[in-house]
Design a protein that fits this description.
Helix content: 55-70%
Largest sheet: 2 strands, antiparallel
Strand order of the largest sheet: 1-2
Radius of gyration: 16 Å
Strand content: under 5%
Structural class: mainly alpha
Number of strands: 2
Distance between the termini: 10 Å
Length: 141
Amino acid sequence: MDLAVKVLTAALWLWFLGAIVTYRWGDKLLVEGVGVKSAEFIMLAMFSAGALLALLRPREGRWVLLAVLVLWLVVQFFCHWYYTIFGASPKKLEGYNRCFEGTLRLIPRSDVRLIPDLYHIVLHALILLDILFLAASMLAD
């Protein structure tokens, strides 16, 4: 794995750890951690295993890491961006806004569209960048 992929993967791991433990930025809530008994922890474990495999067995491990990242991006799209692009039902919007109430936002909440908070925007950008850099490094070999 080249250095850029290692740095991105490490940054993504550290950022996503906030879904397990709570991250704050001063007095502002960045993300409320949900603990180890969660779907987020399972995703963190899958990502960790893929990243470790990519370090130890780069030829096969990079494919595993790429598959985990693509799966993760698809899940995140259908949990967040699908509703941002196509709109959300009032029930979905209410639940989402209640779940992420008080988190730091770049764009204010909407009564019509689901608007991801800062944590999720950065998370999704890191996942996408990791996929692009990993795929580029695999094509370069």
